[in-house]
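Now for today's protein.

===
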Amino acid sequence: MNTSAFSSLISRTKQTVRMPALFVGHGSPMNAIEYNEFARGWKNITEKIPTPSAILCISAHWETRGTYVTAMEKPRTIHDFYGFPKALFDVEYPAPGSPSLAQSTIEAIQSEKVQPDRQWGLDHGCWSILHHMYPDASAPVVQLSMNQLQKPEWHYALAKELSVLRNKGVLIVGSGNMVHNLGVMNWRSPEQGYDWAIEANEHFKHLIVEGNHHQLTAYQQLGAAVQQSVPTPEHFLPLLYLLGLQEENDQLQFFNDKTIFGSISMTSVMIG
């Protein structure tokens, strides 16, 4: 797909509907090859979304010093994990890239100098969910990195600058987990969550419904349950990108709302 593909696709589809945006709890990479309840939830949500002209993904698994956007024609499928079955490493997600969308993203973000990247590709935070949502891999996909030098409120503010892309048929997807503490996972009871993890997840949902974005950006101050549920920021920050994109008339919908393995929340949110 050439550099004008993004603009051409928008022109052909005559996209006039403002696209929704998503935060998706991605969980284990194994979800990519298991057609389980979460995979079904990801697939079902696409039935409520107009066909995107392109997809911009902010994944927990691409942290950088500075901010980068993938700008290659053919992004590689990155298998950024180990210890899983060969069948998972065999999965390829051959979506085209979009240098044009990368440039539109660079132009949309005025508060930060965003650099084009031609090395990264699509990591499992991105392709493991898109593999179920859009299995034909026909829509161009671009990833935006998260600047690990910046605070949560900075990421929230930057997301607001991406809002213009929703009017261009771009589906923006944040991929992480609201509750993500791998160090204390309960392998014996995969269908259950610890009390503190459920408490934190419910607290997050309550604040999302209230539209209390200030407290969510200051999540480290929300008490012991949240601190235990979010020991590191990278899986929580993609949620702040979704909240930064939310506007007054956007409707909210939760899906895949479940806490598993004790300390992983799969709860996902759509706005729009």
